[in-house]
Write the structure tokens for this entry.
Amino acid sequence: MSRLDLHLHTTHSDGSCTPTEVVTKAHRAGVTALAITDHDIMTGLAEAVTAGQQYEIEVIPGVEISSLAGNSELHILGYFLDWQDSALEDRLKTLRDSRHLRNPRIIERLQMLGIDITYDEVRTLAGTESIGRPHIARVLMDKRIVASAKEAFDRFLAEGKPAYVPRELPSPAEAIGWIKAARGLAVLAHPTWVKTEEQPLIDLVRQLKADGLDGVEVYYSTHAARQTREYLSLAQHLGLLVTGGSDFHGLTKPDIEVGIGKGTLHIPTSLLPKMKEAVGRL
Ligand code: AMP
Ligand code: ZN
Ligand code: FE
Ligand code: FE
């Protein structure tokens, strides 16, 4: 059964599988086109493209950028980007630098809680420039301080928990603007995570559309059937593209697999020609 997966993380950000491993898993799951969407970095693409050629899987260049709107983090996915674009690379570098400002402060807080951990250990495990909380969670797992990434987030790393430190994030309009400037499509990731106490989702997405948003990630590993229907009708109502992805990370989200999410995800290949048409109109 042929399917898409347009939201995948690799070892180039906080995923635990290399681009080649991710593409191999995609092949096994019957995925015919995929997008690598690492956080704030695009260095994994070259290897993924090579692996994709081996399996005849189309590899779409992508990225995921965290932004802040009011009290809610919004993640913006970029697709079909010009990944050689130097302005985009400069922006992403700034975002990675802001991670390096925040991460040692998280480590300090963990140390103050009596936990034996150093930032060097996290950097060694990560082996990439784009270091996130899931890397810290993995060091805590390796040291048997927690049994899972979920426990690391629930006890220490999530917003409101004792080792949480915010980082400076762009506005969604900025993140969308950077993607558009690199001739990519901008898509709102996993609407299920958007906080809607301050503003109903439809008002927020309408505003994002005015800022240049092209689509909504309707199909997602943890969207219940009811949510998928709701987001589909929202996208159709606002004239936005529909996309989907598993948000595979490997070890820190062990219940989510490439292509099939928790087992029931099926992202139709018919979404891709519509995305390509929209890229052609840019
Ligand atoms: P950061 O980019 O450092 O702010 O970390 C955020 C990333 O952590 C998200 O993009 C998710 O991939 C991951 N994450 C957030 N909450 C959890 C959780 N409860 N369990 C595992 N991973 C999580
Ligand atoms: Zn992640
Ligand atoms: Fe995300
Ligand atoms: Fe993601």
Notes: The radius of gyration is 18 Å.
